[in-house]
Amino acid sequence: MNFENRQVKLGVNVDHLATLRQARRDVQPDPVAAAKLARQAGADMIVVHLRRDRRHIQDQDLFTLCRLRGKTHVEVCTDPALLAVVAKAKPASACLVPERPGEISTEGGIKLSDGGGRSVGRAIARLKKAGIGASLFVDPEAAAVRMAKSLGADTVELCTTSYAAAENPREAKTALEKLDLAAYLAYELGLRVHAGHDLDYENVRPVAGIAHLEAVNVGFSIVARSVFVGLKPAVAEMKKLLAL
Questions:
Q1: Can you give the pLDDT at residue 70?
Q2: Which CATH superfamily is domain 9-241 in?
Q3: Catalytic residue among 16, 56, 194, 197
Q4: Is 49 annotated as catalytic?
Q5: Which residues are 95's β-sheet partners?
Q6: What is the pTM of this model?
Q7: Buried b (16+ CB within 10 A) or exposed e, 189-202
Q8: With contact defined as beta carbons under 8 Å apart, do 143 and 153 qualify?
């Protein structure tokens, strides 16, 4: 594979547009309208997280997004009730993520040990039965990548939190090396490789340079940038950073 002049795909998460809407229980800003603008600006897929508390994306948002042209990718925990909604909506793909009540954002990769793998395996099987591509959000550790493969996942999304939170260049380099090794292992095992969490305009480019990485998912930083420049320019700027 030639890694020069490649274009890493961009998944744009529109959750925080929905968060703003839900603050007033209004109809604006509409995440579906945001998805259309993001696609016009170069987004390769639209990402949403369907949570138990429905604090941003609502069921109807997901159903409407899945009817639009283009790929919709949903993040969801292994709660059977949520999986039933996802199976009915039929996005192109779904990523299983951990979810803790009261968390501000996802707090690392999904746990696959101490019995966690059984519920994840059942969730993967349910997604595949519905014709939905199955991804796992995992920490960049060899054991997690291997477990993802054994459970039947098609894709791993590597958690980039440790890299993004690095306090100095040495820590960032070490975290990036772990991501690179995890991506290589995933590729060798036949898994597709995505990455995401806490990525922004300042730190995304080194991650995009990881060999075998197909896509990054970015949300909050794009929405925050859009407050000042508009959504289409914010997406286009991020897309440009992914061209290698």
A1: 94
A2: Aldolase class I (3.20.20.70)
A3: 197
A4: yes
A5: 75, 135
A6: 0.93
A7: eebbbbbbbbbebe
A8: no
